[in-house]
Every structure is written in C-alpha cells, then in structure tokens.
Amino acid sequence: MGPWGFRTFEDELACDWLEDLFDSDPVLFFRHCLDLRGLDYVEYLAGIGVICTSEMVHAICDRPRNELPPAAHTWLQQHHRLDVVNLLPDAIAGLRRVLGPESELRQRWEDHDQWGGHWKRCNRDLLRRMESDFLSACTAGEYRRAAESPDYGET
C-alpha cells in the first residue's frame, strides 16, 4: 500500500514500525532505528525508522506534533517519562541524512508531484523542533561542543 499522505505515520511501514514499538524495549528500539553507522545510503525502511523514532523522541521531549495516530498517543501516554534526551543528537543526525541526497526516502518523495514538497517541509519542521529540543536540554556551550564533536550523531 505505501504512503497515503505525507505525515510521519501516513505510511504502511510507519504503522508497522509503531506496532513494533509496542512490542519492544523502547530505548533499545530507538537506538537500533537511529544506528546508521556504516551505511553510505539510507534505504527506505531505515529512513522510516529514523523519522518515526524522531517523531516519538520529539513528542516525549516536548509535545506531539499534530496528526499522530491514536496508537502513538496511547504509547506516549504510557511512556511520557522515558529519558530520551541523549538520543536527540543521533535523531538529528539521522533526520539530516534522511533529508540528504543519499536517501531513498527523500528520492522517492522528491519525485512525488502531489505531496513531495509537503513531506520535505513536514520533516524539516521536525528537524527544527528536535534541534530546539536539544538546545533546550543543553546550555549553548554544550550544544556547540556536541554539534562540533566528530562523534555527533553516532550511536
């Protein structure tokens, strides 16, 4: 079936990801989804994992964006106190890769006449919000040191 809209969970694989989250240790699952080490090219499924993880990490750190499905809200109500701030650098780095040139997900959406631009704006908005979450969690000096670190974004 594939996507039926441009938002994070308007995709069959993203809905499957959400079901997998219910059956997993969330922090380990998130770490696994954000681990892009050794990948020169981010394939579709890996990109879905990064975006879904980023969406949920942002929702825990700040608040859910509009249009999350009821199952995501249910999971968030049960896990709203989960400590995921340390995942923000990897989520930010992962989103940057998904939005970059070596991403199957970005390439597919780039070719989509109806929703391609909406998908890009939606995920750039998520990236901006996650960067803001990270800034809120750190002092400006800590953010700068983390962002300039050669390990920034590595799990």
Strand and helix layout:
Blueprint: H1 12-22, H2 26-34, H3 44-61, H4 70-79, H5 88-98, H6 104-110, H7 116-137, H8 140-148
Note down, in words, how this protein is organized.
By secondary structure, this protein is mainly α. It has one domain. It is built from 8 helices and no strands. The radius of gyration is 15 Å and the shape is globular. It starts with 11 loop residues before the first helix and ends in a 7-residue tail after the last helix.
Keywords:
155 residues, 63% helix
In short:
The protein has 155 residues and is mainly α. It has one domain (12-148).
Write down the overall mean pLDDT. Answer: 89
Our measurement of the CA-to-CA distance between the termini, rounded to an integer number of angstroms, reads 32 Å
Q: How much helical structure, as a percent, in the residues?
A: 55-70%
Radius of gyration: 15 Å
Please summarize the sheet with the most strands.
none
**Number of helical segments?**
8
- Class per helix and strand makeup: mainly alpha
The stretches of 5 or more residues where confidence is low (pLDDT under 50) are none
Number of strands: 0
* Order of helix and strand elements from N to C terminus: HHHHHHHH
Shape: globular
Query: What is the strand content?
Result: under 5%
Estimate nothing, just give the exact number of structural domains: 1
